[in-house]
Amino acid sequence: MSDSISRRQAFKSVAKQARFLLVLPVVQTLLSAFAPACAATTTARPKGEEMNLDDIPGTLDPYRLPRHIVPNRYEIRLEPDLVTATFAGKETIALTVTQATSAIILNAVDLAIASATLEGSSSKRLEATITLDDLMQRCHLTFPQSITPGEWRLHLNFQGKLNDQLRGFYRSTYKDTAGVTHTMAATQFEATDARRAFPCWDEPDFKAVFATTLVTDPGLTAVSNTFIASESSEAGRKVVRFADSIKMSTYLVAFIVGEIEATAPRFVGKTPLRLWTVPGKQPLTPFGHEIAAASLKFFEDYYGIPYPGGKLDLLAIPDFASGAMENLGAITYRETALLVDRQSATHGELERVADVVAHENAHMWFGDLVTMSWWNGLWLNEAFATFMEMLAVDAWKPEWKRWDSFGISRAAAFSVDGLHSTRPIEYPVQAPKDADAMFDVLTYEKGASVLRMLEQHIGPTVFRDGVRDYLRAHAYGNADTNDLWVSLGKIAKQPVPELMNGWIFQPGFPLVTATVSPSSGLTIKQQRFSYLSDEESRSSQDQRWQIPLQIRVTTSGKTNSSRMLLTEKEATIPLPHDWESILLNEGGHGFYRVRYASELLDRLLNTGIDRLAVTERFNLINDAWATTVAGLMSFTDYLDLTARFTTEQDKNVWAVLLDSFSILNRIITEEDRPALEAFVRGRVGPAVAALGWVPRNGESEGTKQLRGELIGAQGKLGNDPAIQRRAAELYGAYRLDAAAVDPNIVPSLVAILAHMGDATRYEEFHQRFRTAATPQEERRYLFSLAAFRPKALLERTLARTISGDIRTQDAPFLVSAVLGNIYGRELAWAFVKTNWEKMDHLFPKQGLRRMCGGIVSLATPELERDVRDFFTTRKIDLGGKTVEQYLEHLRIMVNMRERDGIILRQYLQDNREKKPV
Ligand SMILES: [Zn+2]
User: Fold this and answer.
1) In what order do the strands lie in the sheet with 558-566?
2) CA 540, CA 528: separation in Å to the nearest integer?
3) Closest C-alpha among 452, 433, 343, 441 to residue 389
4) Using CA atoms, how far apart are residues 138 and 342, in angstroms rounded to an integer?
5) Buried-most residue among 64, 115, 411, 554 (CB within 10 A)?
């Protein structure tokens, strides 16, 4: 399509200019990388000057492979050895060569390639000289003669290691009930790690058919993307040959080998759907199986296209770096995201499983059938899957009110997108680490939020039909953002790019300020929202968006809703003379914040906030808090506003309030803490008293969840002794009989007891973590180890994160949790500094990146300086703008402390004198 080609060409021309600079370092890298990695290579070592790079048509872009050779089909045979943690591989790749060349470049890293031969129409085989470039993660094959355009078959033999970094083809271990350790092997290829398992054209638009064969011990089970075509035996080994896949990207290929067990298949149309676990965990599959079937059916109907694979397996892997991975037909999960016990789980834990399962199923179309052309378009996969997961879960359990809790996701996107160091949803990506850094709230949550805004603007049916058109037009191929706009615009019969490009290709989002005057009416103004006002924010003042505004005006008790598109900086709307109140962003779907002039806010509050919908209340308090952090609303006004919510019954609205209280807890001084605790008790106490400790008949899941959250906040942030005593009693009852207590309050009981706990309690919780019956229980007790207060206990927790005691999929998150504990943050920061190299080596990259997010809790000027020094002097790069974002976030926290500390202290003191608790 036109736009994608022009963007790609634009990128290439930049690379072309840089070519002169690039060639020399590449050749040097080839030479220096050769010796250690190529130990198994049998062919002679080439001299760098003999590599004629001009043989490779086009530009030698360091991150994109040349396009003159295209893979069509991979026949891959892998023989993993779980005992030695190695694998042997054989591969035949059918290629189309479009321009004569004597070199082939493809991706490979951490593989020893023993031989590479090329076979054409004649029987003569050409043997390649192999050079590995570890830095660029490439394999260069040079041939003694020119390869002519046409069809060729490339044969490769290689060896690799099953690594412990949870990427590529890796090893996962688990203990059975007798304490015996078992090993399995699994894969995680997205974004750019298929090249660690087999040499390949590891870019999403090199789609091909995959025919996989796995050779294993006879006692093991092998799963891949497709049905088993045949099973045989060779020299005492089991040979499992899988059917051909659809044409798809390398990052979607998957292999899983181990002692794993499956549920009986459940059929959705023609598709058998199974859930796989390690032995003993099958009882935890029914809930996941149910949402998997429901969402698969939902998507077949919504997309109007049958599921593109032959079968669908969902596999729980004991070690897994992310939440789940949408490998076509063989979706892999971390255990907490798939396996759950319906009886003992909280509503939040069930919702998490439902969300992730629906999300991955949505990807079978968005991502797998139609794939972004390159990583800059990742949002086309992830934002859509996030949006679709909401639709599917909402259709499955309307009573969960999933779109209400989507406010939390939108708020997470706002908090990063309010930074100067944010990025547009679609953003140029080159190096693999930058592709990895695209998996963030901007791609997922901001992307899904702007899709929701668009869907509400053009209407759900028109939106769905546009999506169907897009999927049909690009099935089995790749697409760019503009392709989506073309389809949506065609069906909507309106210019979608003009509306949407500002949201996708610009960083940040608008703050809409509403003022009113008797002469002119309502004036609305847009400007980019910013937490910190400095030079840069002034320069971004001219940014504009096309904002779909939905405005509700209440007049004499009647409401009148209207829609408009704000395209200019400012607009004025006449008002009826007897207007009572005005609400902007009615329904709450818009991706912008609203700031009301005080008269407007007073009128809105006086009409009764209980008359607002949940998302509208959510936005009201969330926007108020954000503008307070940005210094645009006074702290006193915000804290007074929170008093209006003491009778609030919605868990999402409360989540904003509680989050703001816990941020205050991070920025106040030690001596102000008792006053803050009293303030929290004053705000939360009435709601806890109204809800009680026991669910009432007919109560919603949301209310049960809210009870748990409020009790937790009152016991920890409020440090309320009565709540703490009751929590200890109930926990005792729960230990005797798990059914004695509603599951939704159990996490809070555990958290409160950890908060109050001593060494005995610590050992008890550590033991419970070790022997937990469900992944959720295991996680709960594991994270409780970060919530104790005594330093000696937190030191034990930190030590465990690098001792091999805790899975590396969880360890970085645990460190982050100790960083977030005000009693342990300095300790944790010192630990991170001391053990950085070890953690960098041990933890999955994604985990390390998330761990560093914990630094935003280090909200004192001294700690901030130290953090900044550390990241700068060590030149730590977490990909994309990650480090800049964390540091800016920390700056905002410290800035707030310096700016408002005295006002906050005064307010809390006055509050304490007014209402002693
Ligand atoms: Zn996804």
Assistant:
1) 558-566, 547-555, 579-583
2) 7
3) 452
4) 47
5) 411
Query: What is the Å distance from ligand 1's center to 228 Cα?
Result: 26
pLDDT in the model for residue 19: 28
Residue 165 CB contacts under 8 Å (≥ 6 apart), including other chains: 844, 845
CA–centroid distance for 358 within its chain? 14
- Give the pLDDT of residue 2: 25
d(CA 550, CA 360) in angstroms, rounded, equals 32
CA-wise closest residue to 56 among 105, 16, 120: 105
pLDDT value at position 519? Answer: 86
**Alpha carbons 681 and 716: distance in angstroms, whole number:** 10
Residue 556 is predicted with a pLDDT of: 85
Query: Given this model, what pLDDT does residue 63 score?
Result: 87
Torsion angle (degrees, nearest 10) of CA 301, 303, 306, 307: -110
Question: Cα of 359 to ligand 1 centre, how many Å?
Answer: 6
How many angstroms separate the CA atoms of 260 and 361, rounded? 21
10-residue mean pLDDT profile of the chain (917 residues): values are 27 29 29 28 32 50 91 98 97 97 96 97 89 94 94 98 96 93 97 97 98 97 98 97 98 98 97 97 98 98 97 97 96 97 96 97 98 94 96 97 95 96 92 85 96 96 98 98 95 93 96 92 95 69 92 91 94 93 96 96 91 96 97 95 94 97 95 96 96 95 96 98 98 96 97 98 97 95 98 98 94 97 97 97 93 96 97 93 96 96 94 61
Distance of alpha carbon 400 from alpha carbon 696, whole angstroms: 17
Catalytic site positions: 360
Nearest to 642 by CA among 631, 630, 632, 659: 659
State the angle between helix axes of 721-736 and 746-756 in degrees (0 to 180), rounded to the nearest 10: 120
Number of H helices, E strands in the chain: 29, 30
For ion ligand 1, residues whose CB falls within 5 Å:
382, 385
Phi first, then psi, for residue 238 (nearest 5°) are -90, 130
Ligand 1 center to 229 CA (angstroms) = 29
Residues 641, 644, 646, 652: is their CA dihedral positive or negative? Answer: negative
Chain centroid, CA 62 distance in Å: 27
Amino acid 9: pLDDT: 31
Query: CA torsion, points 133, 134, 137, 143, in degrees to nearest 10?
Result: 20
Q: Report the DSSP beta bridge partners of residue 93.
A: 74, 154
User: Would you call 831 helix, strand, or coil by DSSP?
Assistant: helix
Residue of 126, 119, 196 whose CA lies nearest to 152: 119
Say how many Å lie between the CA of residue 728 and the centre of ligand 1.
40
Whether 370 and 384 have beta carbons less than 8 Å apart is answered as no
For the entire predicted model, the pTM comes to: 0.91
User: Taking a C-beta distance cutoff of 8 angstroms, is the pair 385, 367 a contact?
Assistant: yes
pLDDT at 608: 85
State which amino acid sits at residue 776: Q
Q: What are residue 312's phi and psi, to 5 degrees? A: -135, 115
User: Residues 6 or more apart from 737 whose CB is under 8 A from it?
Assistant: none
325 CA to middle of ligand 1, Å?
7
CB 486 within 8 A of CB 1: yes
Q: Is 783 exposed, middle or buried (0-12, 13-18, 19+ CB in 10 A)?
A: buried
Q: What is the pLDDT of residue 535?
A: 56
Angle, helix 673-691 to helix 651-667, in steps of 10 degrees: 170
- Residue the block writes with tokens 């995680």: 188
Residues 6+ apart with CB under 8 A from 222: 214, 216, 238, 240, 255, 256, 257
CA distances from 600 to 530, 595, 596 (A): 22, 9, 6
Apex CA 641: angle with CA 638 and CA 642, to 5°? 95
pLDDT of 913: 67
